[in-house]
């Protein structure tokens, strides 16, 4: 278990803290991603956990042990039992794959038999069992990434920290490695923090995602929860494209907030319950707009643009003064109608919207 409490870190000369009163609990065996734009404090948080930065205040506990406390306790990095994997793999090209992975164990002065046993285990865990004696210079990008992971796993860390480890891989390999990495970490029951600016990395890999903004966590939750029920404007706008409008809460029906908007009364998912009369910002995602045949069942949209993108036909238009953008799967009747007839009007029903405090 990793526990971060009220962590604050301000770099010398900076106007604002890089980490601003951040608290986070990571239960054993859980993969948490820190997701956010460049400069939001992800790497600073990771480096503080590793002991590579000294925060101004707060506390960090690993497995119940205080490894940092503003009050004085500081455990040096090499005694925190942490494994790290970075974007740059730091592979020695002139050494063999085995020697690259064995490095951490040799530095820790582990006996020879332990070095051989753990290195062999780590290489087979990442699928490089047959590559032990190969020169590291002859590995592909994906294989180098596995070596870096094996090196971190070989020391049997109680916590694994990964900083954008897939960002140097091409798109296809990256997609494959996400699944693979998750499978390995889950099979081993490893507790991990994964830093990324890529929403897909975060969603595929993690049990919990912490979306960060300006050194703080805006929202922490299972990927599906934060996608379905964003808590703030920042979260709603970070997670994909949406159309935005304003509304006033009318009440609650089941687990949906009914909100009066220029697009009519919409059923909204939300992270919290609002009171009738509360002002909210309402977001509508493209996939939530369903074209319908009956004008009485939906909103009339004046279409401005229809584009065939490949798997989807993407359209944009105005309804009730609100700009809407939606997609329909290519090849469906409605998609064929849109691209062949280029209609000026479309009627759409809005399945779910999302609302956050205004
Ligand atoms: N060594 C440093 N000295 C001064 N300022 C720093 C230092 N490292 C980071 N910062 C600043 O602290 C803030 C947070 O940086 P951090 O690297 O933690 O963000 P990040 O979310 O990991 O971004 P990226 O994805 O670009 O690595 C940024 O404003 C950055 O410019």
From TrEMBL:
Keywords: ATP-binding, Nucleotide-binding, Transport
Entry annotated with the keyword rRNA-binding: no
GO-annotated molecular function: ATP binding
Pfam family, one: ABC_tran
SUPFAM superfamilies linked: P-loop containing nucleoside triphosphate hydrolases
InterPro entries named among the record's database cross-references: AAA+_ATPase, ABC_SmlMolc_Importer, ABC_transporter-like_ATP-bd, ABC_transporter-like_CS, P-loop_NTPase
Source superkingdom: Bacteria
Keyword Repeat: no
Domain ABC transporter per the UniProt entry, residue ranges: 2-239
PANTHER family the UniProt entry points to: SPERMIDINE/PUTRESCINE IMPORT ATP-BINDING PROTEIN POTA, SPERMIDINE_PUTRESCINE IMPORT ATP-BINDING PROTEIN POTA
Family: Belongs to the ABC transporter superfamily.
Protein's name according to its UniProt entry: ABC transporter ATP-binding protein
Organism encoding this protein: Aquamicrobium soli
